[in-house]
Amino acid sequence: MPAWLSLTTDQVLVTLSCPSEINGVTVDKLVLRSPTVGDVRAANREVGGDDEQRELVLFAALSGAPVADLEGLKLVDFNRLQAGYFRMDNNDGL
After folding, report:
1. Which residue among 22, 41, 69, 81 is least packed, with the fewest CB closer than 10 Å?
2. Average pLDDT of each block of 10 consecutive residues along the chain (94 residues)?
3. How far apart are CA 39 and CA 79, in angstroms?
4. Element (H, E) at 16
5. Do 32 and 59 touch, CB atoms closer than 8 A?
6. pTM over 0.85
């Protein structure tokens, strides 16, 4: 498990490579809670087949961050969110 990732059955904590502004606050970590079926269905409905946008909408719902703030993350940090989500989703780290 990478040092920047902490995983439980309920959430993943990702340490960012550099601080970013989320909801008007500078943070160096982001938490994604475990998704529900409803979260995934809502993201699918909202974007109509655009996989990249669906992922952004889902991560926004799970983190409480606006999509625009997630779009402002450095790519390395968004990749960290993706890695954390997929580990949590597949229970790889548990």
Report:
1. 41
2. 93 97 97 94 89 94 97 97 89 52
3. 20
4. strand 11-22
5. yes
6. yes
